[in-house]
Amino acid sequence: MKVPPPPSGKVGLPAELSLQLLADMLRIRRMEEKCAELYGAGKIRGFLHLYIGEEAVAAGAMRALAPGDNVVATYREHGHALLRGVSMDRIMAEMYGKQEGCSRGRGGSMHLFDAATRFYGGNAIVGGGLPLAAGLALAAKLKQEPRVTACFFGEGAVAEGAFHESMNLAQLWQVPVAYLCENNLYAMGTALERSESQTDLCAKAASYGMATLKVDGMDVAAVHETALRAREYAAKKGPIFVEFQTYRFRAHSMFDPELYREKSEVEAWKERGPIHTFTARLKAQKQLTEERFLELDRAAQAEVEKAVAFAEAGTWEPAQNLTQDVMTPA
How do residues 201-217 score in pLDDT, each as one tens digit? Predict the structure, then answer.
């Protein structure tokens, strides 16, 4: 597999925004690294899908959205939830299964949810969020609300029937939805070219008459600018599909032996890592010093330590509560 050269050149964003995007990526990276450590220690159980390597997509896209927009994500959603405004404390408590978590400890890693920030999951079903996003966008249109729905999903979802049904309905209804595909090249352990006869994902969306954009998902500045365009288009004209070309540095999940790709390929992609390449570009144009970078990193690590302490101090839901909220009130 030919790996593109790392993102380079001048970052054309305001200095303050650039530092915010860098801080966002660091917050995700340090939280995810700690989650991997806690999983190994048996503190986090069940499935855990890490976002390490893909941070530029969540960081760049989340800052392009308005506070009133809806967000729908996949089971690799910790970074999206964090940058949407769900506190790291509540995310970590949810990872632990504690009732102080954002889903009261009942969802765990794959089912983060927070109605207050309009973060509607965390969806464990591949492609399961796409029809939900179409419905949320239809509701906004019928209510005449100035609200866009952003739907994140991996390229594996493109092989699902729900993808095609959602593309078709969203385009027919002309609803304000931005379908944001995080193409990390491997749906679990299957390379894109082994599962899709048409590997141009934008061509699939375009076959429904939908507007499309494609961008380097390892370049947080490019992601942010593209996400702004997509959000504006969805708000004014209707559905749009964006392919963010990215790569995960860790295995699909903590259970994945990762036998489907060469270690040399992963190392080559790490040369395109979104944090260190963006840091180097900002330093080159005198918008960042090493001291400032370390300050941002220390703040991220302190936030992680606080979140772990919060989760450790959390409480288990009493067993007698397990039937609560299973059925809606009569």
Answer: 999 999 999 999 999 99
